[in-house]
Specification:
5 helices; 2 domains; six-stranded mixed beta sheet; 205 residues
Length: 205
């Protein structure tokens, strides 16, 4: 199988588990969603390919910063949102693993929304984004965080959460300078939720 390897602390546990299974004979090839994930996978002996090398990713395992009742997500606080979304889009299955603290009734109520932005004219881009009703702060502030693609990330906070994620996603991506938003809509096929009561699996209706 071709397995998309997500980015983040939760996903790292899954990648470590896959590494143990590969040593036991599991036949997979991984498509990493960040340079950090690529380094971890190589350390664990997971064979890797690029997205260009394969027709489709069979399944991607990734985390999320927020999950709403429709299984729409905010992702990318680690800064890998563009690559994560590209791999998710080309995956037959997108499995999200979270603990129950990531469950929300409305996106944007706990986590800010990360938005990847080109460096050129980024302060102008921020002002236009703030016109959509958020306060946008540069990730890293005085020492700006750069994504693996060389872009900046703005963390956008909405006082009452995000009322219409689909509209906001479209509005953000229509702004010149915005590369991608951390709204992952209609991409997750399963959400695995861990809590004190055990593990529950949600599937797309």
């Amino acid at each position: 199988m071709i397995v998309g390897l997500g980015t983040g602390s939760t996903t790292n546990y899954a990648i470590e588990g896959l590494g143990r299974m590969v040593k036991e004979g599991l036949d997979i090839r991984g498509v990493p969603t960040s340079l950090a994930t690529e380094r971890l996978a190589r350390q664990l002996g997971i064979p890797l390919v690029t997205l260009e090398d394969v027709e489709m990713v069979d399944v991607t395992i990734d985390g999320a910063d927020e999950v709403d009742p429709d299984m729409d997500l905010i992702k990318g606080m680690g800064g890998a949102l563009l690559r994560e979304k590209v791999v998710a889009y080309h995956s037959a299955e997108e499995i999200i693993i979270v603990d129950d603290s990531k469950l929300v009734e409305r996106l944007g109520t706990k986590s800010p929304l990360p938005v990847e932005v080109a460096q050129f004219g980024h302060s102008k881009t921020r002002k236009v984004m703030e016109g959509l009703g958020c306060i946008a702060e540069l990730k890293g502030r005085s020492q700006p965080f750069l994504t693996d693609n060389g872009n900046l990330v703005y963390e956008c906070r909405f006082e009452e959460g995000i009322e219409d994620p689909g509209l906001l996603d479209a509005d953000l991506r229509s702004i010149p300078g915005v590369v991608e938003s951390g709204l992952f809509l209609d991409l997750a096929t399963k959400v695995v939720v861990a809590s004190d009561d055990g593990v529950a699996v949600r599937t797309k209706r």
